[in-house]
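Notebook entry, structure prediction.
Reason for the run: the old model in the group folder had no record of what sequence produced it. Starting over properly, with the input documented here first.
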Amino acid sequence: MQVVIAEDGVLIREGIKGLLQRFGHEVVAAVGDAPALIDEVRAHQPDLVVTDVRMPPGFSDEGLQAAIKLRAADPKLAVLVLSQYVEQTYAAELLESGRRGGVGYLLKDRIGDIAEFVDAVDRVGAGHTVVDPEVVAQLLGRRRDPLSRLTPREREVLALMAEGRSNTAIARTMSVSDAAVAKHIGSVFAKLELPADDDDQHRRVRAVLAYLRG
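New structure, fully documented this time:
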C-alpha cells in the first residue's frame, strides 16, 4: 500500500514512516505541513494518507481540513487521522465520508500497541472505518436528542459498531450471543430511521455519525 504521511513533528513523522515500511507499506512522501500534503497526494495518488490535525501554517486544524479537501477530490482515498484531541466539527464531516472509502480517527495518547496501530492502518486502507472510542464518545456528546430513543445497551452496541467491530466481536466484548447483538443493531437502525437499502458496509457507522453534523 502506498502511503503519504503528514506530521510536523520530525521524530514522530520518521517514526511512523519507519514503522509502516517495516510492515511492508511504501511511504511515497512524508511532509510537515498541510500544503505539502495536498501537493504530494496529487503527485503520487497514494492509497492512504496518515495525517495529524494541527500542522503549519496555522497549527489549528489544517491537516484535517486538507484531508477533507482531498477526500472531496478523490472519495476512494483512505485517510487515517492521528491527533492529540478531537476536532469535533471537521471530525464528524470526515467520518461521514466513510461510506465512500476507508477513514479513521485515532488519538495519539491512546495508541499503546504497535500491532493495534498497524491493524488500524490496514483496515482503513482496505476501506473500513476505525474510530477511537473516546472520539465516538465526544462526538455523541454533541447531539444527544436523536439518540435519546436508544437504550443504554443499544448505545453500547452503537459505540462498538463505530469502532468497526463485527457482530461476533461485539458479542464477545459484551458477553452476549450473536443473535442478541443482531437484535440490538436492528433496533438501533429502526430507531434512527436508517434506510434498509443503504450500503451495509457503512450503514453501521452511519448509525453513529448521521446525526453528528451541525
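Summary: The mean pLDDT is 84.
The old model has been moved to the deprecated folder.
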